[in-house]
Design brief:
This protein has 225 residues and is an alpha/beta fold. It has two domains: 119 residues, Response regulator (Rossmann fold, 3-Layer(aba) Sandwich), CATH 3.40.50; 97 residues, Arc Repressor Mutant, subunit A (Orthogonal Bundle). The protein contains eight helices and 14 strands. The strands form four sheets. It has a five-stranded parallel β-sheet with strand order 2-1-3-6-7, sandwiched between helices. Strands 8-9-10-11 form a four-stranded antiparallel β-sheet, with helices on one face. Helix 6 crosses helix 8. The longest helix is centred in the middle third of the chain and has 16 residues.
Length: 225
């Protein structure tokens, strides 16, 4: 899951990023309204953690922009402004949930995962494709009931393929999904090929089929023949 943390407190945003990165998220941080806008227009995110109190703008205005342009992005408001009208305004504008500060990082994680499940898996905790079963709750992938030994990036990539089955995913899209704006410094997409090679090897070793098909000149498509 790719998450944009919009929070002007550097200490809090760093703590959130460190914790959720260990939980398997791909995290990016924007410390103000302007930076958040630039990242939103430059990259695609699954989830947004949005503080309402930004030094150069109103978080509710940013929420309007998000929902007007990217309605499929899940938004969790995190703000010290816990007045009822702010909560109602945020939810009325399309936010998925509201978590007042201070909060425990474990609860933040649980709420973000719940939003992701509702938006991408219709509330289900598992995604099933043929013999492959993916659990967003435990970050496990099973093939023929055998748990694969995956890195966080490999898990994220398999999940990305399965929820986008039958769609062509370019190397650029895959790279940005896995690494976000760190891709700006990359010289090539060789690491994408390496991740895909590792996934194929692990799935087939567990007796699964290789559903990742190369679309020459474009990218990859996850589908059943």
């Amino acid at each position: 899951m790719k998450l944009l943390i919009i929070e002007d407190n550097p200490s809090l945003s760093d703590n959130i990023k460190a914790y959720l990165s260990r939980e398997g998220y791909v995290c990016e941080v924007a410390l103000n309204y302007r930076s958040a806008s630039e990242k939103l227009y430059g990259y695609k995110y699954d989830l947004i953690a949005l503080d309402l109190m930004l030094p150069d703008g109103n978080g509710l205005d940013l929420l309007k922009t998000i929902k007007g342009n990217w309605p499929d992005m899940g938004v969790l408001i995190i703000s010290a402004k816990n007045a009822l009208d702010d909560k109602i305004s945020g939810l009325d504008l399309g936010a998925d949930d509201y978590l007042p500060k201070p909060f425990h990082l474990a609860e933040l994680n649980s709420r973000l995962k719940a939003i992701f499940r509702r938006r991408n898996q219709q509330g289900e905790t598992k995604v099933v494709f043929e013999e492959i079963v993916i659990s967003a709750e435990t970050f496990e992938v099973r093939v023929n009931d055998q748990v694969l030994d995956l890195t966080p990036k490999e898990f994220d990539l398999i999940h990305y393929f399965v929820v986008n089955q039958n769609r062509v995913l370019t190397k650029q899209a895959i790279a940005e999904h896995l690494w976000g704006d760190y891709m700006d410094a990359a010289d090539s997409f060789d690491f994408v090929y390496q991740h895909i090679k590792n996934i194929r090897k692990k799935i087939t070793a567990a007796g699964g089929e290789d559903y990742i098909h190369t679309v020459y000149g474009l990218g990859y498509k996850f589908k059943k023949e």
